[in-house]
Amino acid sequence: MVKAKKYIVQKQFDGLPKSTDLTIVEEELPPVTDGEFLAEAVYLSVDPYMRAMSDSVPIGETFLGTQVAEITQSKNSDYPVGKHTVAPFGWRTHTLSTGGPFPIGLPKAWIIPDPEGLPLSFYLGVLGMTGNTAYFGFLEICKPKPGETVVVSGAAGAVGSIVGQIAKIKGCKVIGIAGSEEKGKWLVNDLNFDNFINYKDPKFKEKLEELTPKGVDCYFDNVGGQISSEVLHRMNKHGRISVCGSISTYNDKEVKGGYAEMGGFGVTLLVLAGVVQSDIVSKQLKMEGFMVYQWWDRWMEGIEQNKKWIKEGKLKCSETVTKGFENTLKAFVDMLQGGNTGKAIVQI
Ligand SMILES: NC(=O)c1ccc[n+]([C@@H]2O[C@H](COP(=O)([O-])OP(=O)(O)OC[C@H]3O[C@@H](n4cnc5c(N)ncnc54)[C@H](OP(=O)(O)O)[C@@H]3O)[C@@H](O)[C@H]2O)c1
């Protein structure tokens, strides 16, 4: 009899998640039946969307998330013993599954092809959901051209760090926005970004103007809020904005209503999101949101391309790895507060 450990929801999050909001419980799993397989978690992913979607998990249910797991028993020929799968099993150590379909997020458990010497954890990051978010979300929506200026927020995180490097591969000038000088220096010195802005710098707006003298052609938005309002004001005519996420609001108890600050009339006005429309209209901008699984039918294309760039030395990836299933909630909260550089991962 296999015993699984799992995190169940004790209390819905209120602001930043607390250690008492989730509890670890044990569960005895029944034997594998026809069509099923048993998978043992090797790495868990902790991602911002889990905070944004946490209210969809009822009290007492397993908390949501994707993992890399080894298939240890199987009565399903699509999921053979010894292979590793990427699957949305939630925060749990052992899982009995048929492989999907799943209602939220990753539609189906998929088998990792020959990892070719790359770490299995990459399949939760650059060779998985966040890498494909960068690849498709940036290239399909921003359609960057060589020489254009690209701004990326959340730039030192899992998605942003890959977007900026893809933009460099495509011949763009890239400015990353991140939450510390240390992260910014990493973007420039290690990842080849042209420059960075620390969004906590009180002179953020002035720095943005200084570093984008020709304006901004493409903005990849991971954070929303005031940072994004400032970038929108810098957009050039026919600029493209890929709206990936809005992490600056995920822990807010109330939505602040899309306020954006606008100056220029002798006073500073606080106006509703209408100011966004005014930039969009006057500069004929294209602003598009997306969900990465809309490209599920092209999933392996993104993975193969990112793998190729890694092997050519054009794409670097960093991970912040926390050890121990018991530390998953802590790793999640750390990531929400900027404790990660690159992809936040938990090693079981
Ligand atoms: N649309 C999709 O299909 C899709 C798919 C994947 C991810 N996403 C979105 O993409 C974004 C990035 O996800 P990720 O997985 O790459 O996470 P991540 O960037 O690796 O981690 C989250 C980062 O957000 C930053 N952050 C936290 N609070 C912030 C605030 N108030 N203002 C600005 N930055 C803040 C922190 O970095 P700092 O130290 O720089 O603050 C933190 O490291 C999220 O919004 C996520 O929801 C969307």
UniProtKB/TrEMBL annotation:
The keyword tRNA-binding does not apply. The keyword Mitochondrion does not apply. GO terms for biological process: prostaglandin metabolic process. It catalyses: 13,14-dihydro-15-oxo-prostaglandin F1alpha + NADP(+) = 15-oxoprostaglandin F1alpha + NADPH + H(+); (5S,12S)-dihydroxy-(6E,10E,12E,14Z)-eicosatetraenoate + NADP(+) = 12-oxo-(5S)-hydroxy-(6E,8E,10E,14Z)-eicosatetraenoate + NADPH + H(+); 13,14-dihydro-15-oxo-PGF2alpha + NADP(+) = 15-oxoprostaglandin F2alpha + NADPH + H(+); pentan-2-one + NADP(+) = (E)-pent-3-en-2-one + NADPH + H(+). GO terms for molecular function: 15-oxoprostaglandin 13-reductase [NAD(P)+] activity; 2-alkenal reductase [NAD(P)H] activity. Pfam families: ADH_N_2, ADH_zinc_N. InterPro entries: ADH-like_C, ADH_N_2, ER, GroES-like_sf, MDR_fam, NAD(P)-bd_dom_sf, PTGR1. Keywords: Acetylation, Cytoplasm, Fatty acid metabolism, Hydroxylation, Lipid metabolism, NADP, Oxidoreductase, Phosphoprotein, Prostaglandin metabolism. Monomer or homodimer. This is Prostaglandin reductase 1.
